[in-house]
Amino acid sequence: MKILHVVHGYTPAVGGTQHMVQQLSERFTRDFGDHVTVFTTVAHSNAYFRDRRQPAMRPGIEKINGVTVRRFPVFNRFGALRLNLARVMHKLHLPYEDWARGCYFGPIIPGLAREIAASGADVIMASAFPLLHMHNAIRGGQSGHIPVILLGAFHTADRWGFDRKMVYDDIRACDAYVAYTGYERDYLAARGLTVERCEVIPGGVDVAFFAGFDRRAARARLGIGDELMIASVAQHLPHKRLDVLISAMPIIWRTQPDARLLIVGRTGEDTMRLEALRDALSAKDRERIQLIVDHTPAEKAEVLAACDIFAMLSSHEAFGLVYAEAWACGKPVIGSSIGAISSVIRDGVDGLLAPHDADVSTYAKAALDLWQHPEIRLTMGVNGQARMRTECDLDIVARRYHELYEQTTHTYAHKIALNPLRVN
User: Fold this and answer.
1) Which domains does the chain have, with CATH numbers?
2) Which of 187-201, 253-267, 384-398 is predicted with the least confidence, judged by mean pLDDT?
């Protein structure tokens, strides 16, 4: 099968969607013998789509682990003007205000839809909303008579980004849709967004890779003894709410004065604020909060293996792949009871959910409760890891995607055979 993946960033760019598309691309090439091409951008992060000062890669074509990767340049000028225009049009309910928001988010890639149409692919999969390349994938698929599957990664709480007519129109136009959770599927269905085929496929994680790291060895390499260690993995963005974790530590220190917090994740627009929060602490307390920004996948896995508790208090996630990675390491997790996160974490079974608008003391108490009950921590970690092995292991997830691709191309070809006018 000739597969085209359209995504806003690809390794070495990092992020949940980027990682998911990379893993699928490489497994399809390796395990199924498919020819996989990725159309992506030169960006390391989404900030580049509206800020030309951000770092970028070179445009062009390269091979990465058997996958053909084509990086497109991005028009990223007038970011502030695009934002202000979108805000004004949205506030005044002007026609095409949803397009104005789309142009602000980007990526604006001239000619992308035309290149997608000419790709000669058997099937297209694009991810993720609310970005503009999703619309290009629909347009390119329609022009090139290629079926399109959308992996929306829909953040229901982000109304500014996702609650747009053009997004809903694109969902209606696709040939198949993948929702990370039943929550996402039901949210879209409640808004009348029925598609020809909607599959619920969770995020995939290489369970064997993460489970292969030893806790004691990892702690020894990190210089950590038997003290409580809390870990989080997230880019430094406001909606990840890493500031809440930092603010909760003084409360935790009252009971566990040696407790450590390790945050693994790329720098972002919230980095300066996080560093300021940490720098406001005493010298002793600053040593017990570590921001690890330049890390390899193995170093991330090592932190997850070493920790006692994983916490990510994000205000919105489509799935939260890092929860799955923590479970793969056999760790209990703490998250906010909001949106899809509430359907990912099974409260009291493999983690704890706390109200999203709770005081920081609530999150501190959740962590202390888990620390003081090691048998509960162990049981939650075992439950989470078992679930990952049966539901989220990458081999299982990749196979489900591949079956969906095959079914979608078969259904599309059958419809064309029955109604040739469809292609005109």
Assistant:
1) 2-204+393-423 (3.40.50.2000), 207-392 (3.40.50.2000)
2) 187-201
Nearest to residue 43, comparing CAs of 35, 53, 33? 53
Q: What are phi and psi of 11, to 5 degrees?
A: -40, 135
Q: For residue 72, which amino acid is it?
A: F
Type of residue numbered 139: R
Query: Which two tokens mark 250?
Result: 């003084």
Cα 286 from chain centre: 29
Instruction: Report residue 417 as tokens.
Output: 């055979």
Q: 3-state SS of 65-132?
A: CCEEEEEECCECCCHHHHHHHHHHHHHCCCCCHHHHHHHHHCCECCCHHHHHHCCCCCEEEEECCCCC
Distances (CA, A) of 407 to 136, 149, 401: 23, 11, 10
- Summarize pLDDT for 184-218 with one digit per residue, the tens: 999 999 988 877 789 999 999 999 999 999 999 99
Let me know: does 185 contact 150? Beta carbons within 8 Å. Answer: no
Percent of the chain with pLDDT over 70: 99
> Average pLDDT, whole number, for the chain?
94
Query: Can you tell me whether residue 350 is helix, strand or coil?
Result: coil
CA distance 45 to 264: 16
pLDDT digits (tens, 9 = 90+) for 162-187: 999 999 999 999 999 999 999 999 99
How many Å apart are CA 327 and CA 279, to the nearest integer?
31
Q: Which of 345-354 are b and which e, b meaning 16 or more Cβ less than 10 Å from the residue's Cβ?
A: beeeebbbbb
The residues near 230 (Cβ < 8 Å, ≥ 6 apart) are 245, 252, 259, 260, 261, 262, 307, 308, 309, 310, 311, 367
Report the predicted TM-score, pTM, of the whole model to 2 decimal places. Answer: 0.91
Q: How far apart are CA 339 and CA 335, in angstroms?
A: 11
Confidence grade of residue 85 (pLDDT, cut at 50, 70, 90): very high
Q: Measured in whole angstroms, how far is the alpha carbon of residue 72 from the centre of its chain?
A: 21
**Three-class SS state of 416:** helix
Q: Are 246 and 261 in contact (CB under 8 A)?
A: yes
- Beta-bridge partner residues of 69: 38, 62
Whether the CB-CB separation of 1 and 409 falls below 8 Å is answered with: yes
Gyration radius (Cα) of the chain, Å: 22
